[in-house]
Specification:
Layout: H1 10-23, H2 28-35, H3 41-52, H4 63-76, H5 80-84, H6 92-109, H7 117-138, H8 157-161, H9 172-184, H10 201-210, H11 214-222, H12 227-239, H13 247-258
The structure holds a DNA duplex.
Subcellular location: Nucleus
Biased composition (Polar residues): 164-174
Main location: nucleus
Length: 271
DNA sequence: AATAAATACAACCGCTCTTCT
DNA sequence: AAGAAGAGCGGTTGTATTTAT
């Protein structure tokens, strides 16, 4: 049995597309056989689900979608298919690829381990707010956009995601998800709520710098930060009272980081 | 201009869990 | 009840395209 592998041709695509259209999804081995495709059923299923299916969305991942992916990954980890359920038209494969190519790349450039606390904090307190800013800038009809980062991120994701269990106090991100997935990309009337968690993990992260120990400086330079930047941070950090982070502080933090981030411009896809 | 290196995305693989017969 | 087929998942690889040298 010669079973074809590798990229699908336009001809194979049209055969599979027509077959599924008239016979429906499922029973992929049989489908492959009776459609006359020299492909495994598994390959046909994947091709349909990830590419041919009319509902799959083509084109760049939007800012809103990026934000959603980051947030959901926080809560769910590498549960790509679960994440994909919140992004209509996007496949688990696509999201996984996005994560690996963009997010992991960013971590590499910052010399972070992608799972490290430092990188997670950077994403959460810098990258995501910055994304939000850009969303706000690009959808100027939305009067207020704000971020919701739950202060209790360590709780199981179900309580965030299962509507039956989400209490009002914990529903901020969920609400933003709903807004994002259902209407932000299409509508201009939705708002996303902002509540930055008052005392963040990142405070502790910066305490490290505050000690001004040489060793720790070296560690941080190893992570990709130059000495001048770190000195600025130290001065800045010392100026902060132990306590709440206000909006200005967050802005400052974002500015410190933002130069290190590149964000892809989302250009309308031509096809 | 040529080619090497990097990137992005599509597709595959091995495995588990579920459903069907 | 059990084995086979189907479906789904996450990780990895292959390849076409883009970018750098």
């Amino acid at each position: 049995m010669d079973v074809r592998k590798g990229p699908w041709t336009a001809e194979e695509d049209s055969i599979l597309f027509n077959y599924v259209n008239s016979h429906g999804e499922g029973r992929w081995n049989a489908a492959a056989r009776s459609a006359g495709l020299k492909r495994s059923g598994k390959s046909c299923r994947l091709r349909w689900l990830n590419y041919l299916r009319p509902s799959v969305k083509r084109g760049n991942i939007t800012l809103q979608e990026q934000l959603l992916i980051l947030d959901l990954h926080f809560q769910l980890g590498n549960r790509w298919s679960k994440i994909a359920r919140y992004l209509p038209g996007r496949t688990d494969n696509e999201i996984k690829n996005y994560w690996r190519t963009r997010v992991q790349k960013q971590a590499r450039q910052l010399k972070y381990d992608v799972n490290s606390k430092g990188f997670r904090d950077t994403m959460r307190y810098v990258w995501m707010p910055r994304l939000l800013e850009r969303i706000q800038a690009s959808t100027d009809s939305i009067p207020v956009i704000s971020i919701a980062i739950d202060s209790d991120v360590d709780q199981p994701p179900q309580s965030h995601l299962d509507p039956t269990h989400s209490s009002p106090s914990k529903s901020s991100w969920v609400n933003s998800h709903v807004a994002s997935t259902t209407s932000i990309s299409n509508s201009i009337s939705d708002q996303v709520q902002l509540q930055v968690s008052p005392v963040s993990d990142i405070v502790e992260n910066f305490k490290l710098i505050d000690t001004s120990e040489k060793d720790e400086m070296v560690v941080l330079t190893d992570q990709g930060y130059d000495r001048d930047t770190m000195n600025e941070w130290i001065g800045w950090e010392e100026s902060l009272e132990n306590g709440l982070w206000n909006e200005q502080d967050m802005l400052f933090l974002q500015q410190q980081f933002s130069a290190q981030f590149e964000f892809d411009d989302v250009t309308p896809n031509s096809n």
